Each structure stands twice: as structure tokens, then as C-alpha cells.
């Protein structure tokens, strides 16, 4: 019986072989050209997103060139057991599909603190709704900027719905996130992200295989309507219903990009030709040129005739009078700590005159008085600019 049992080395070899076979099968779901195209899309869009995040956090943000692979969802669930933050991004214009961004919970806490202007970060605290709302807004800014780059790349308007953030594990995400439901494999695009010298981490973008193939197809112009036979871009495909394309040479991706560029160049040439033809249309009418004659304005009008209208025309217009007790400036993090009984110190001293405004324009200074249980203000000084205007 002992001779029939497998040794540990044989078991490891069998498991290793099975894993390698599975990875090979998964990687065959998208071709090398499609993988390169997805990497280029991610590189351009995330480059723009990094600029938007840098402006929002007031820190230098860098996102490296992406790594594209096809992963088994069950294997990902086994590898990533701790909770993470998933940001679900759905497209509403230009593209039909969605993708999920994966961030570490500690990175989300730091991003929230940076957005609130904090200089120290508490990573031991619990993740709150404020953290999820803050990272949703950050991703909304990032992906909104990325959509601008994608719009230029795909020559169509692309927009997203407001992202939704959730703290979740991969095991639960398989049943709750639309991107991972009823799917065995997923396209994983990995980026390395650094924020100043505060964050040095990795983020992931998960895209359904079908949607990834659709992105490549739209990028190559395979689904666009053409106006003439000269604008048709041919593709070597063995099945019309499939979105995968097999290419025979390594430089076929460059050729497809070049064909798209040439297509746009031909459109520009047609526009220029049309404009040039319109410029060449000339009329035979003769043109008469004359010197202009202007009326003399040497005589100044009499001053008594300048303002002869009655002030009664504007006498009934209401003007809002405001007396300002004082002002102060606080940071958002200080305002968030306010509660009942909090005292806010203003910039006015005791006994100092108050400012009086008419429709927001400073006109005078005054002192506080009490008239029949109501506050009032006695004018003590009129603004010089107000005097000059009147």
C-alpha cells in the first residue's frame, strides 16, 4: 500500500503542473496584441489620472506602466484574503461596461487624511463612511480625467457614473460585484502607485474579459461605420462573432495604430481641401472704396443737461443693509470638530466699530444700539469711496 502513495515531491509537481496549465489556458483568452493594447490604454488613462490625483492631494503622484494578465477569480480570492476597498466604475456614455479598482484600506485612509489637510495619519483607526466617500470622490476626479484621454483615443465622448466604494473581500466580491459575477476569469491590470514619500503601494484594475476585448476592438476601429472603401480597415478574423483577432507578425499592432492615424489624416485632408475650394470661389462684383466720414464731437454738452432724470425712478429698488460683527478663517479639520457650545473667536475687538454693507458693498461704520428689545446700529462714519460715488 505504501508503494501506491505519492511522495510530497510528486504531489507538488502535479499541483505545479496543473497551475501552470491553468495559467497558460487563461493567458490564451486574450492575444499578445490585445494585452499590449490594454496596457497602452491603461498607461495613457492612468497617466492623466495621476495628474488629477496629484492636484487633489497636493502631492506628487506617480503611476507606473501597467502589467496585464488574465487571472482566475477563485485563485485571486485565495491569494487576497484580507479586506480591501473596491471602487466600482461604470461607463454611461461611449462605452458599455464597467471595471473595478482595488486599493488597500491603509492607502484609502491616507488619501482621506490628505484630502482633509491632515499632516499625520492614523492607520489603526476603523475605515469609516467618510473614507469611502472621500476615495469615491478621488476616483471620480481620476477616472473623469482618464475619460478625457480615452475620448481622444477612441474619437468619441466617454463618461462615467459616480463611482461607488465598498470595503469587501474577494470571497464576497465574487457574489456582490457585477464585474466578478458569473465569471471564472478576469483581466487584471496592475499599477505601482507612489504619493510623495507617503504611499508606495500597488493598485489593481479588474476588467471583464469580454469588455477588455471590446475596448481593443473599438481602439482598432473594427466596429466603426466607414464612409468609403478607402476608409475600411481590414482585420484577420476566423469568426465574425468573436472579438479576438489573430495577427501573424509582431508589428501588426503598430500597423493597426498607423491605419487609425492615417484615417484621421485623410479626414483632415478632406476638410482642408473643402476649405481651400471655398476660398477659391470669388465674385466679379466691383468694390468701391471710400474715405470714412465721422461726425465732429468737439463741442462738450452742458453739465446742467447731464443728469436731468428724477431719482424717483430708482427710489423703490430694495437694498439689503448688513452689519458685520466680525470674521475669522478656519480649516476644514477644525470645523469638523465643532459642537454645541463651541466658541468661535472673531477678528473684532470689544468696542470696535462694526462694518455696514449695502448689497455687499462697504458704505459705513457704526456702533450697536438697542431699540425696543431689538438690536440696531448707529452710523458713526461714512466710507470715502461711498461719498465720492454719490
TrEMBL record:
Q: What is this protein called?
A: Flagellar motor switch phosphatase FliY
Naming one, the record's GO cellular component terms include: bacterial-type flagellum basal body
Q: Which residues form the Flagellar motor switch protein FliN-like C-terminal domain?
A: 313-382
List the InterPro entries: CheC, CheC-like_sf, FliN, FliN-like_C, FliN/MopA/SpaO, FliN_T3SS_HrcQb, SpoA-like_sf
Native organism is Acidilutibacter cellobiosedens
Q: Which domain of life is it from?
A: Bacteria
**What is one Gene Ontology biological process annotated in the Swiss-Prot or TrEMBL record?**
chemotaxis
Q: Where in the cell is it found?
A: Cell membrane
Principal localisation: membrane
Q: Compositionally biased, Polar residues: which spans?
A: 235-244
- State the Pfam families in the record: CheC, FliMN_C
Q: What is the lineage of its organism?
A: Bacteria, Bacillati, Bacillota, Tissierellia, Tissierellales
Q: Where is this region: Disordered?
A: 227-250
Q: Name one GO molecular function term.
A: cytoskeletal motor activity
Q: Which keywords appear in this protein's UniProt record, sorted alphabetically?
A: Cell membrane, Cell projection, Chemotaxis, Cilium, Flagellar rotation, Flagellum, Membrane
* Membrane topology per record: Peripheral membrane protein
According to the entry, every stretch annotated as the CheC-like protein domain falls at 34-69, 130-164
Q: Does the keyword Cell membrane apply?
A: yes
Amino acid at each position: 500500500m505504501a508503494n501506491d502513495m505519492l511522495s510530497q515531491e510528486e504531489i507538488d509537481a502535479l499541483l505545479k503542473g496543473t497551475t501552470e496549465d491553468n495559467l497558460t489556458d487563461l493567458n490564451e483568452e486574450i492575444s499578445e496584441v490585445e494585452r499590449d493594447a490594454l496596457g497602452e490604454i491603461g498607461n495613457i488613462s492612468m497617466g492623466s489620472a495621476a495628474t488629477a490625483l496629484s492636484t487633489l492631494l497636493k502631492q506628487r503622484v506617480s503611476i507606473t506602466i501597467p502589467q496585464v494578465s488574465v487571472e482566475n477569480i477563485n485563485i485571486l480570492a485565495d491569494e487576497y484574503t484580507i479586506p480591501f476597498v473596491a471602487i466600482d466604475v461604470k461607463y454611461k456614455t461611449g462605452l458599455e461596461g464597467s471595471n473595478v479598482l482595488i486599493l488597500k484600506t491603509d492607502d484609502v485612509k491616507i488619501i482621506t487624511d490628505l484630502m482633509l489637510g491632515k499632516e499625520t495619519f492614523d492607520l489603526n483607526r476603523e475605515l469609516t463612511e467618510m473614507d469611502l466617500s472621500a476615495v469615491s470622490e478621488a476616483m471620480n476626479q481620476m477616472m473623469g480625467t482618464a475619460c478625457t484621454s480615452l475620448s481622444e483615443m477612441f474619437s468619441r465622448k466617454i463618461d462615467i457614473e459616480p463611482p461607488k466604494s465598498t470595503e469587501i473581500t474577494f470571497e464576497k466580491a465574487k457574489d456582490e460585484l457585477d464585474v466578478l459575477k458569473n465569471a471564472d476569469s478576469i483581466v487584471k491590470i496592475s499599477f505601482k502607485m507612489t504619493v510623495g514619500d507617503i504611499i508606495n503601494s500597488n493598485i489593481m484594475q479588474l476588467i471583464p474579459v469580454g469588455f477588455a476585448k471590446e475596448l481593443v476592438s473599438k481602439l482598432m476601429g473594427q466596429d466603426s461605420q466607414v464612409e468609403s472603401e478607402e476608409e475600411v480597415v481590414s482585420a484577420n478574423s476566423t469568426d465574425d462573432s468573436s472579438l479576438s483577432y489573430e495577427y501573424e507578425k509582431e508589428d501588426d499592432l503598430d500597423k493597426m495604430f498607423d491605419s487609425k492615424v492615417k484615417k484621421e489624416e485623410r479626414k483632415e485632408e478632406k476638410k482642408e481641401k473643402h476649405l481651400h475650394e471655398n476660398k477659391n470661389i470669388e465674385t466679379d462684383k466691383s468694390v468701391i472704396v471710400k474715405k470714412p466720414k465721422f461726425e465732429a464731437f468737439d463741442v462738450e454738452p452742458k453739465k446742467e443737461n447731464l443728469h436731468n432724470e428724477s431719482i424717483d425712478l430708482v427710489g423703490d429698488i430694495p437694498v439689503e443693509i448688513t452689519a458685520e460683527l466680525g470674521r475669522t478663517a478656519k480649516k476644514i479639520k477644525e470645523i469638523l470638530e465643532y459642537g454645541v457650545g463651541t466658541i468661535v473667536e472673531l477678528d473684532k475687538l470689544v468696542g470696535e466699530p462694526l462694518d455696514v454693507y449695502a448689497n455687499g458693498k462697504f458704505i459705513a461704520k457704526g456702533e450697536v444700539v438697542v431699540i425696543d428689545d431689538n438690536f440696531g446700529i448707529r452710523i458713526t462714519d461714512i466710507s470715502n469711496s461711498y461719498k465720492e460715488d454719490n
